[in-house]
């Protein structure tokens, strides 16, 4: 048993899709979430800048004596996770390995699509991980740089002409490859699942990176006997810019109202 909180971070609000899953499958856990909204999106940054940002995010969360850390950011998971894991003496999980494992299990024709940020696609991390799990799998990757800023600005609802036009432009070439499984390699993308599913069709299985990472976290805590024991855990939210705006959109990610004063403001450059 370990009553300390779990730390979770992302470049913005996308990681809240993982938090929602953690709340569902680990309801006794306290969660500290940090969204780096002053520097979102991470997807176009260089590996050196991403590592600096990630180290600051980790140092902030470790100030709460967290017991484990979920990197709920596909970009950081693909570019900086090994370094973060080597520098910190606590369990640190990303989204790549559990997401790839789910895709390998789901695919029938060995054709797997990937949508992610430009940095994640450039890293080749998903391709390497999938190839190590099943050498027969073919990966078709597509960078979708406009998805994160659109989601962060609330443009993710079906019927929104802007996001639907962008999504069709990104996804139509992937659909034409004949993939039967599509990895949503950024934790912002599950909010687009209805739109993506409509474009790709029912024959394509969508893999939610945030949900798969949350399940992997549960397995890690169970294996280490680190699960909390309390009637109900609490989630505390922090952002590096515009906490009131963060709160307004966070309620849609978490499917519950979030008060405008419920999000703490962090000067992340201090860490």
CATH top level assignment of the largest domain: Alpha Beta
Gyration radius from CA atoms, angstroms? 18 Å
The major β-sheet equals: 6 strands, parallel
| CATH fold assignment of the largest domain | Rossmann fold
Give the amount of beta strand, in percent: 15-25%
| Spatial strand order of the main sheet | 4-3-1-2-9-10
Helix content class: 40-55%
What keywords describe this structure?
Rossmann fold, 271 residues, 2 domains, alpha/beta
Task: Detail the topology: elements first, then pairings.
Elements: E1 6-10, H1 16-25, E2 31-35, H2 47-62, E3 68-71, H3 74-79, H4 81-87, E4 92-93, H5 96-106, E5 111-116, H6 118-123, H7 125-133, E6 138-143, H8 147-152, H9 161-175, E7 181-184, H10 193-200, E8 205-208, H11 209-223, E9 235-239, H12 243-254, E10 263-265
Parallel strand pairs: 1-2, 1-3, 2-9, 3-4, 5-6, 5-7, 7-8, 9-10
Short description:
With 271 residues, the chain is an alpha/beta fold. 45% of the residues lie in helices and 16% in strands.
Explain this structure to me?
With 271 residues, the chain is α/β, with parallel strands linked by helices. The protein folds into two domains: 6-94 and 211-270, Rossmann fold (3-Layer(aba) Sandwich), CATH 3.40.50.1860; 96-209, Rossmann fold (3-Layer(aba) Sandwich), CATH 3.40.50. It is built from twelve helices and ten strands. It has helices at 16-25, 47-62, 74-79, 81-87, 96-106, 118-123, 125-133, 147-152, 161-175, 193-200, 209-223, 243-254, and strands at residues 6-10, 31-35, 68-71, 92-93, 111-116, 138-143, 181-184, 205-208, 235-239, 263-265. Helix 9 (161-175) packs across helix 10 (193-200).
């Amino acid at each position: 048993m370990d009553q300390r909180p779990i730390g979770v971070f992302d470049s913005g609000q996308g990681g809240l899709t993982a938090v929602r899953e953690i709340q569902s499958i680990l309801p006794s856990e306290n969660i500290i979430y940090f969204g780096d909204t002053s520097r979102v999106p991470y997807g176009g940054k260089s590996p050196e800048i991403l590592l600096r940002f990630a180290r600051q995010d980790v140092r902030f969360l470790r100030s709460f004596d967290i017991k484990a850390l979920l990197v709920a950011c596909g970009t950081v998971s693909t570019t900086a996770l090994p370094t973060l894991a080597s520098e910190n003496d606590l369990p640190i999980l990303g989204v790549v390995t559990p997401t790839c494992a789910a895709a390998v299990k789901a695919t029938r024709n060995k054709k797997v699509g990937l949508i992610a940020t430009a940095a994640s696609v450039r890293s080749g991390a998903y391709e390497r991980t999938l190839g190590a799990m099943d050498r027969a799998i073919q990966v078709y990757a597509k960078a979708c740089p406009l998805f994160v800023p659109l989601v962060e600005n609330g443009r993710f609802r079906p019927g929104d002409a802007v996001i639907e036009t962008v999504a069709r432009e990104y996804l139509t070439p992937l659909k034409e490859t004949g993939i039967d499984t599509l990895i949503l390699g950024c934790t912002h993308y599950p909010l687009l699942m209805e739109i993506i599913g409509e474009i790709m069709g029912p024959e394509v299985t969508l893999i939610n990176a945030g949900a798969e990472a949350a399940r992997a976290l549960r397995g890690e805590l169970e294996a280490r006997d680190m699960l909390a024991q309390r009637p109900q855990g609490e989630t505390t939210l922090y952002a590096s810019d515009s906490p009131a705006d963060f709160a307004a959109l966070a309620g849609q990610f978490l499917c519950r109202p979030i008060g405008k004063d419920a999000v703490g403001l962090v000067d992340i450059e201090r860490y």
